[in-house]
Amino acid sequence: MQKWIMSGLLFIACAFAIVLIFTLPGKEEVAQDAKPTMPKVTLNASAAEATMKANCISCHGDQLEGKIGPNLQKIGGQLTDEQIFTTITKGNGNMPSFKDKLKPEEIANVAMFLAAKK
């Protein structure tokens, strides 16, 4: 009886290992998540402001003066557009990730808009 139990457990462990092999992300996917690539976009200030009003003002204030989140009025003097893109995409500390809420092009447009604020 113990042989049947051990055989069953071994079979379940092997099946689980095979499932994990095919479902876990590969090195390329992990690297892409670690450093998202900013798409090439042309800055559209009005679209960036609309996106920010819909998603950012609750934490950063309607003038980006900072409320719960930090002041972003001169963030371009501290961070590049790619750094801002990565922060918006992945989140940082108390800031949530927006990769599932906004398109990469929208995030890039906002990042370029904020990077111009120096």
UniProtKB/TrEMBL annotation:
What InterPro entries does UniProt report for this protein, alphabetically?
Cyt_c-like_dom, Cyt_c-like_dom_sf, Cyt_c_BACSU-c550-type, Cyt_C_IC, Cytochrome_c550/c551-like
What keywords were assigned to this record?
Electron transport, Heme, Iron, Metal-binding, Transport
Would you say which domain of life the source belongs to?
Answer: Bacteria
SUPFAM superfamilies documented for this protein = Cytochrome c
Per the UniProt record, which residue ranges are transmembrane?
none
Residue stretches making up the Cytochrome c domain: 43-118
Protein name (Swiss-Prot/TrEMBL): Cytochrome c550
